[in-house]
Amino acid sequence: MNIFKIIEEIEKFDPEVYGRLDSRRSAFKNLGSLGKKTALAAMPLALGSVFQKAYGQGNSMVLEILNFALKLEYLERNFYTQGLAASGLITDSAARGAFEKIQMHEAAHVDLLITTIQSLNGTPISEPTFNFGKNFADWNTNYQTFLTLAQAFEDTGVRAYKGQAANLINNDTVLTVALQIHSVEARHAAHVRRMRSNKGWIEGAGDNSDVPAGAQPVYAGENNVMQGSINDVKTVGEGYSAAIATGAFDEPLTKEQVAQIVSLFE
């Protein structure tokens, strides 16, 4: 058995394998001090421990993130399904057509996430029961309230996926799935915002003064004008205002922030 050959093969699929193993020397230095027979006997146990350390926690975290995303997609699919079924709510044919397509997109996202979780030997969470009238009593009778929540959900989706991207950086397949969904959520958000006569992008938290207080957590942190170590507003020579600086970048939402938003409807 050539353990280094095995690691080199893994490296073809995971270029950062040595970093995960805390370097080649750190991972195997103790094996070198053992007798040959002892080392061979210990090899399977040692390998199991090493790879569990390297990949076990990562897979668990990926599954947690995927189920986190699945809950948000369940929320959106359920919201549009119920809204489309509400009598007299969406009467404009163009708007109904748009929301029917958005609902189908969200349903496809649910199916893709479930399949991805199962392919990783994980268990998809069951669909929760949502109560959209918990804090918005007229959500399915007042079209403007429905539009407001649609905007809030789509804006949340964009920022939520961005918030978890860094945690998926070592899994190209799952990251690709997340980014595919993220880009569609951004298109949904822009379309719904235009339906409300808003800009297609967020210009700071104050840009959403027409959103009820209960939905304001969706826009937490959007006043940020710092990207990395650069203050975009101070680049006066480029003509950047605070509105341009905040509108040019979406800020990520943490899992805790998204959980707070979702809790408004559970």
From TrEMBL:
<dbReference type="InterPro" id="IPR012347">
    <property type="entry name" value="Ferritin-like"/>
</dbReference>
<dbReference type="InterPro" id="IPR009078">
    <property type="entry name" value="Ferritin-like_SF"/>
</dbReference>
<dbReference type="Pfam" id="PF13668">
    <property type="entry name" value="Ferritin_2"/>
</dbReference>
<protein>
    <submittedName>
        <fullName>Ferritin-like domain-containing protein</fullName>
    </submittedName>
</protein>
